[in-house]
């Protein structure tokens, strides 16, 4: 019973990251630019995940890091909502309006606590890295783990950080942050604000239902990339409708989100690059701003190399792709791999609601020639992500059927995160003005 009671407590701990440092109802800068409190909450989450990323490099014990986290976020929340602005009524109202969010989080959390099976990659890679932190080691010690070079560490750090923060230090408490981020990403897309809650909540429940599988929360990292892509997809949509001053905030949010992607999973670097390419193709953004964006992205990549170099760690070991294999692959074998890959891609695509529905909507809008900036963004994303999937599988020296069968479903899933906003917006509107 005490174990179950800790789930609402950890929900509150997670929610602190959505409430500060920016006041969701009184941020002077963002309110003037007409950002909703959910927009600010999403930005708060992205900021605070970046804070935890920085914390993961500092050689603090988890006990000390947890203590700093709890003291800092509770104190800041008390200051922002009680001392500075006296927003107790606001917090009560937010909880009332978002009660469905908590209920869905609670249900999924109980399912996770009840099953406890870890995915294969989670069991042999991600949880082992989490154990390094749990057992008092730090980032520099990860180089002692043979497979560290193939897998970024941030998802494992989150797992370790939040599994250690509760009195009962069960490992699955760390995986509940994956549940929270997933639920928040869908909730954020379903709601423009918390006033249109009935229809939005119905769609929210449906959107969770069609995408929930326990395996998503078994320690595998795709759920984190899916959720971040879903959140960023709404920021990309906002760029087409906002003034330049508002878009600066959206762009900063996207860059911070992209920074998280490159520390979660190897594929995250590819999707981060895709998002940067897309934003540099957007007409609403001036060339001067695009130069800043590209420079910021270059700095993020450089920062990763600097960190690995400083700690004497290798980013990649034996390369997955070799020029010798690519140059000498036979055309007939390439066609064979293409056939196998296409069949699995169709199968897994049809079994993923957001992927197949998003592509149907996208195709329909293109046939109707409803060209607009956001539709162009989606077209670019589809083209670039599809090219990546085919090149990743065709040019890698592995047995194609086994490789596709064991990994492609997860790639399709994480890739589908960027289509979530498109699908949910379509469900909410059902009219010819969609995407205008």
Q: How would you describe this protein?
A:
There is one protein chain. The chain is 72% helix and 0% strand. It is built from 20 helices and no strands. The protein is mainly α. The model has no long low-confidence stretch (mean pLDDT 85). The chain folds into two domains: 2-237, no CATH class; 321-436, no CATH class.
Main features:
mainly alpha
User: Main beta sheet: strand number and arrangement?
Assistant: none
The radius of gyration computed from the alpha-carbon positions, rounded to a whole number of angstroms, is: 21 Å
Order of helices and strands: HHHHHHHHHHHHHHHHHHHH
Total strands? 0
Question: How many structural domains does the protein architecture include?
Answer: 2
What does the overall shape look like? globular
Strand content: under 5%
Q: What's the end-to-end separation, in Å?
A: 50 Å
Structure annotation, total helices: 20
Q: What structural class is derived from the secondary structure elements?
A: mainly alpha
What is the mean predicted local confidence, pLDDT? 85
Helix content: over 70%
Unreliable stretches (pLDDT < 50, length at least 5) are none
Task: Summarize it.
Helix content is 72%, strand content 0%. The chain is mainly α and 436 residues long.
């Amino acid at each position: 019973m005490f174990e179950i009671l800790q789930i609402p407590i950890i929900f509150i701990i997670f929610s602190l990251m959505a409430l500060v440092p920016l006041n969701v109802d009184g941020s002077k800068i963002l309110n003037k630019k007409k950002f909703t409190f959910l927009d600010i909450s999403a930005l708060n989450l992205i900021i605070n995940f970046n804070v935890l990323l920085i914390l993961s490099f500092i050689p603090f014990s988890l006990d000390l890091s947890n203590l700093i986290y709890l003291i800092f976020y509770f104190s800041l929340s008390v200051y922002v909502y009680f001392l500075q602005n006296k927003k107790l009524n606001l917090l009560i109202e937010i909880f009332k309006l978002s009660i469905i969010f908590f209920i869905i989080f609670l249900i999924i959390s109980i399912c996770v606590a009840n099953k406890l099976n870890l995915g294969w990659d989670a069991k042999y890679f991600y949880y082992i890295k989490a154990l390094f932190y749990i057992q008092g080691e730090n980032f520099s010690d990860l180089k002692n783990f043979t497979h560290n070079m193939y897998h970024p560490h941030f998802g494992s750090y989150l797992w370790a950080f939040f599994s250690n923060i509760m009195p009962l230090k069960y490992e699955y408490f760390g995986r509940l942050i994956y549940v929270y981020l997933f639920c928040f990403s869908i909730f954020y897309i379903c709601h423009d604000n918390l006033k249109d809650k009935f229809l939005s909540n119905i769609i929210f429940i449906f959107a969770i239902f069609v995408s929930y599988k326990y395996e998503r929360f078994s320690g595998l990292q795709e759920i984190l990339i899916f959720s971040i892509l879903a959140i960023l997809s709404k920021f990309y949509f906002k760029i087409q409708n906002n003034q330049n001053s508002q878009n600066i905030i959206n762009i900063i949010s996207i860059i911070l989100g992209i920074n998280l992607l490159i520390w979660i999973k190897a594929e995250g670097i590819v999707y981060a690059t895709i998002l940067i390419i897309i934003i540099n193709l957007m007409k609403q953004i001036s060339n001067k701003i695009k130069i800043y964006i590209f420079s910021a992205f270059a700095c993020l990549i450089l920062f990763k190399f600097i960190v690995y170099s400083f700690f004497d760690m290798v980013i990649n070991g034996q390369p997955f792709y070799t020029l010798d294999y690519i140059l000498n692959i036979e055309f007939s074998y390439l066609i064979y791999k293409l056939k196998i890959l296409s069949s699995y891609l169709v199968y897994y695509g049809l079994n993923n609601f957001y992927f197949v529905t998003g592509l149907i909507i996208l195709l329909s809008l293109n046939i109707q020639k409803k060209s607009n900036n956001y539709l162009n963004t989606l077209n670019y994303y589809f083209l670039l992500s599809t090219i990546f999937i085919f090149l990743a599988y065709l040019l890698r020296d592995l047995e194609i059927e086994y490789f596709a069968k064991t990994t492609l479903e997860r790639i399709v899933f994480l890739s589908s995160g960027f289509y979530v906003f498109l699908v949910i917006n379509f469900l909410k509107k059902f009219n010819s003005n969609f995407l205008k």
